[in-house]
Each structure stands twice: as C-alpha cells, then as structure tokens.
Amino acid sequence: MPQSATNQGGPAPAGTVGAATAVAWDGVADLLRAGGLRWTPQRRTLVDVLKEHEGHVTATELIARCRELDRTTTPSTVYRTLDVLEEFGLVAHGHGPDGREEYHVLPEQVHGHLYCSGCGATWEIRPETGAAIVDALAADLGFSVDLSHVTISGRCRGCHDSPTD
Amino acid sequence: MPQSATNQGGPAPAGTVGAATAVAWDGVADLLRAGGLRWTPQRRTLVDVLKEHEGHVTATELIARCRELDRTTTPSTVYRTLDVLEEFGLVAHGHGPDGREEYHVLPEQVHGHLYCSGCGATWEIRPETGAAIVDALAADLGFSVDLSHVTISGRCRGCHDSPTD
DNA sequence: TTAAATGCAAAGGGTTTGCACCGGA
DNA sequence: TCCGGTGCAAACCCTTTGCATTTAA
Q1: Which tens digits make up the pLDDT trace of B117-152?
Q2: What crossing angle do the helices spanning B127-141 and A127-141 adopt, rounded to 10°?
Q3: Sheet of A122-124, strands arranged across
Q4: Does A126 touch chain B if contact means CB atoms closer than 8 Å?
Q5: Is B95 inside a domain boundary?
Q6: Does residue A91 sit in the same domain as residue A42?
Q7: What pLDDT score does B17 carry?
Q8: How far apart are CA A67 and CA A64, in angstroms?
Q9: Do the domain assignments include residue B1?
Q10: pTM above 0.85, yes or no
C-alpha cells in the first residue's frame, strides 16, 4: 500500500493523482513499479479491459470481460488489482443502483459545485460523489449529466443547524 | 402485493402515494388494512423504529433497533415489511456509500429537475433518485441538499447520441 | 374461517481473506 | 534471491426464499 499516491482526506486531489491521470493507462506499468509493485499479465489484462470502459463498470462486468481475454482470471485477483489501481487514483469505486460495486475509470477532475444558501460558500463535489450523482440519473431516465454544469444548493455542515432561511 | 398502491412506471406519483404521506405514520395501520393487508405486532415495532429515523437508515440498523424493542425480531420479517411499506410509498430504498440497503423514511414528494441541453425538455427527478443524490452529498461533506432547488443539466436519452452541443 | 404474516433455516450472490505456491524485479 | 502476486477455496455479510405454523380480520 503505497501511501505516496493515496489521497483520502483533502478536498481535491491534484499533484500526485493528477500526474497519474495525465500519463493515463500508458504509464501504469511504470507507475506501479515506481511504487515497488509489479506489472503482471493479470494486471495487464485488467487494464486492457479498463481501457474499453471509459465510463463506469461493475466489478462483475470487469471480471467477466477479463475472463474473455484470459480464461484463468479469478475474482480475487481482479478485486485486489482494482484496490491497487484505486490507490493510484486510476479508478474510483462506488455503488450502483443495485448495490453492487461499481468502478469509475480514470475519474475526471471535472466536478460540480455545492452552494450553501446559509453562508454563501461553495465547495467542489468530489469525483466519487459526482459519479454517484451521474450514475443515479443514468439509472433513472438514461440521462447523461454534464457534471461541470452542476451546482446544487443546500446547507453545508456548519449551516445545517442554523435555519437562517 | 396490492398493486393499487404501487407506482412504478409513471414519472411522478401523486394521488395515492401523496395521500399516504399526508396521514404519515398515524394511518399506517388503516392504510395497510385498506389494502387487504394486516397490522401485526412486528409491523408495529418496525414502524415505531422508523418513526425515530426520519432521515435514512440501513436495513441492518433497522433490524438491530427492532431487536432492542422486540428480541424475537427476525430479518426476513423486517425485509418483507419494508417491501410492503415501500409499495405504499412510506419508505424508499437505495444503497448507501458502503453498498448496503438503505431505506429513506417518508420520502418527500419534493423533487429536483433535469434539463436537457439537447432538446430543452425538462424532467422530474424521481424521489428515489433524488434521495440517492441527497445521500451522496451528505456522505461527502455533510451537505444537506435542497432538492427543490436542484436542476441538473445534461442530455436525455434521446439527445444522448446527437451531440448538438 | 381463511388468507396473510411469521419464523426458521437454508440458499444465494457478490466480495473478502488465509495460505501455499509462483514469478516479476 | 525476495517479496509481491496469484489461485483456490472457504469464509462472510447482507438479503432472499421455501415451507410449515401462527394469527389478524
């Protein structure tokens, strides 16, 4: 678990993860190796599959696709590799409408905004959260959300208890 | 399974479900009976628990809480009762950040809108979908979304393939 | 009385983990 | 050589289902 490439707490990942996104999939092998990890045939297969799914996919779909390319693919390896890729910011996982694990490939830095009607402040919607919104609406009416145009109003944590409406 | 109180296909449930929401929990017993269903001690226990959670809860939490009030509570009964309540629009289920079943108590009829930048049409965001958005943002920054003020732009299913942007 | 509801227990599906062996670097 | 990865299988968690029994209406 290379903590160097992990970003959990902060609002918006930028430097490290951004660089990884820049080299996209072409540099995955080197990226992993740079972190002391290894580039294996199984991981290559998964990345090949991920290349095909620029949007979002369920773990089950990924496993099935991998099996088409390599019949010896096992679920555990896929899940473990996805964990690794997630630590490098190459995928992000959430949950679809049916509750299954859903992975977002190469999460874009495009994000929506939150506007607090209490204090007027704005926040960025984190990629994973934005993806959840996109998914919810895609499942609803097959609607393709333009995340960059999304601004949702409401009340931030701080203003939540003070109804200065 | 009383189809009379179920609304699945249409855009926005109104009459039937709205009436149910109006009487809130006070009329659940009669509401069920009116549908040919029965009011049992187990259902009463669950409703008592639901009264405490005006927001959203996981099925597991509900089961645990029910057990505190009635040690003989069994998961299957809770799940089945939740299904029934959902048919009456008293709860709506989705999935939380961890992928577990999450139930939204007394889902409001307040809803957001979708705007298609392709054809200019608008749609209502269904309650369950809106709930998913609310949850996602609550999990993100503890942000309380004002669904009635939400309008998300993007492309509807029909305009999805014709990039007239 | 009668059909709905319960409780139990077992099945089910997706995800995770332990452990011995394999194989990149 | 060495430590990370893999594969297998069993474990897990939550949720669903079948069936005999109970019970609300």
Answers
A1: 777 777 777 766 777 787 777 776 778 887 766 778
A2: 180
A3: A122-124, A113-116, A151-155, B144-145
A4: yes
A5: yes
A6: yes
A7: 38
A8: 5
A9: no
A10: no
**A119-146 per-position pLDDT tens digit:** 777 777 776 677 778 777 776 667 778 7
Q: Over the stretch A1-50, which tens digit does the pLDDT of each residue have?
A: 343 333 333 333 333 333 434 456 888 999 999 999 999 999 999 999 99
Nucleotides of C under 7 A from a protein CB: 4-10, 14-18, 23-25
Tell me whether residue A21 is exposed, middle or buried, using C-beta atoms within 10 angstroms of its C-beta: 0 to 12, 13 to 18, 19 or more.
middle
Residues A140 and A97 in one domain: no
Domain boundary among B84, B105, B126: B105
Whether residue B122 sits in one domain with residue B48: no
Residue A81 sits in a domain of what CATH number? 1.10.10.10
Is-contact B123 A143, C-beta < 8 A? yes
Mean pLDDT of all residues in A88-104: 80
Residue A152 belongs to domain spanning? 113-161
Cβ contacts of A156 on chain B, cutoff 8 Å: 141-144
Question: Do residue A88 and residue A41 come from a single domain?
Answer: yes
Q: Measured on CA atoms in the order A116, A135, A107, A88, is the torsion positive or negative?
A: positive
